[in-house]
Design brief:
With about 425 residues, the chain is α/β, with parallel strands linked by helices. About 45% of the residues lie in helices and about 10% in strands.
């Protein structure tokens, strides 16, 4: 166990020297290996201050992590800030320190009286979910809020700070190695500014949402972010992310089995999936269907490590599984347009309507509906997100009337208007 000297002195209520404290601990039967000087690299970190966030109505949170060489993100730094402008109102937490545990943070996450504020929270939440199966409640994502408050499709953090707070964010340290210690002053300043500016952005957007009566919209979206299902990658669903030109069910079965093996292996070894095999190599294997190590050695795209050992065995097992599979067990293509008869003219009109409604409501288009949804709507599908909740009010209701031939579109000046038919 590693214990800081200041904490120990406070706990023992003593001002004795370190050597005297060690003697006292030894006398009562506690073995002390020694004292390690960490003041240089730890001076900016205040571990116990996490608990202070529970006294405030909200806390802004950000993380710095690395993922280039691992499957799961490696959390390197945690930043938190509470209302106020004092030096103790924003902190950095060294999550790589052996003495650091995140239990106080997760207790904060479960404290429903404190709003946890993030910007573009999904990657941060994925880290916390995989670390402790815990997600913050209640959650507020400033990127989501900005997209329903007129800040456009790309509501980046720097953009919001510039437009709302009239300040600039120095992003020069964004791509530095956050796992190296000690951190530079530039890294510390960059990291702490990510949560100090976020306080002002949050307060502005919260007031704007209340003024526009759109708080329920953001709650609806953040509930989706709080669903653990989106952070757990299921190996047998991984094949759906791979782009292929063929819809042959048997070919898709090879892709599914190979992708499932790749995902399972990458997760178990905590390495990027591309270190097992890249998508183009996976597609080549699904086409060539190797049946032996010798066949694998002839592949142009397979990495050297994948031609032998565990990876090679896994590849051949996946191929063998499909060879013994009944056709009824083959997967079907997930591409929605393969089974829908899309009316292209209607789809184009829906795109025009979406753009018009986006401008009128001051909500980013991609928050309302995507291209695939518009095509599905034009093909007669009705179980779609754009026809539910606040999206129905903003776009869906009029989109259905357009699909049913009840209204048409007209241009008047620079505006698109609907007229009754």
């Amino acid at each position: 166990m590693i214990i800081t000297i200041p904490w120990l002195k406070k706990h023992l209520n003593t001002k004795a020297k370190e050597s005297e404290i060690i003697d006292q601990l030894t006398n009562i039967g506690l073995e002390v290996e020694g004292i390690k000087e960490n003041s240089g690299e730890m001076s900016f970190f205040k571990i116990a201050k996490i608990l202070k966030a529970e006294k405030h109505p909200f806390v802004t949170i950000d993380t710095e992590f690395l993922r280039e060489r691992t499957y799961y993100s490696k959390l390197c730094l945690l930043q938190l800030a509470v209302p106020g402008g004092g030096p103790d109102d924003a902190i950095l937490v060294d999550t790589l320190s052996p003495a650091m545990g995140l239990d106080p943070l997760y207790r904060l996450f479960r404290n429903t009286s404190v709003v946890k504020v993030f910007h573009a929270a999904r990657q941060d939440l994925e880290i916390f979910w995989h670390d402790a199966k815990t997600l913050p409640t209640p959650l507020f994502d400033t990127q989501v809020a900005a997209m329903v408050c007129g800040f456009g499709e790309q509501a980046g953090y720097e953009t919001l700070v510039r437009k709302i707070l009239k300040e600039e964010v120095d992003k020069s340290s964004r791509f530095t190695d956050w796992s190296r210690r000690p951190l530079t002053e530039a890294q510390k300043n960059y990291a702490i500014s990510d949560v100090t500016h976020l306080r002002g952005v949050y307060l502005f957007l919260k007031a704007e949402l209340e003024r526009r009566d759109r708080v329920p919209w953001v709650i609806e979206e953040t509930l989706m972010l709080s669903n653990p299902v989106i952070y757990d990658v299921m190996p047998f669903e991984a094949w759906k992310r791979i782009k292929t030109r063929t819809n042959s069910n048997k070919f898709l079965a090879f892709i599914r089995e190979l992708a499932a093996f790749r995902e399972t292996y990458a997760q178990s070894k905590n390495i990027p999936r591309n270190r097992v095999m890249k998508d183009d190599a996976l597609l080549e294997l699904a086409s060539s269907k190797p049946s032996s190590i010798d066949d694998l050695s002839k592949s142009r795209l397979i990495l050297r490590e994948a031609r032998k050992g565990e990876i090679a065995v896994g590849i051949l097992a996946a191929i063998k599984t499909v060879a013994a599979m009944e056709p009824k067990d083959f997967p079907k293509s997930p591409k929605i347009n393969d089974k829908l008869q899309v009316n292209p003219a209607l789809a184009d009109l829906l795109r025009v309507l979406l753009k018009a409604k986006s401008e009128q409501s001051d909500v980013a288009q991609k928050m309302i509906a995507n291209v695939a949804e518009l095509d599905a709507l034009a093909a007669g599908e009705r179980d779609l997100p754009s026809l539910k909740g606040w999206r129905l009010e903003v776009f869906g209701a009029e989109a259905l009337r357009l699909c049913n031939g009840e209204v048409g579109l007209a241009v008047k000046g620079n505006r698109v208007k609907l007229f009754e038919l």
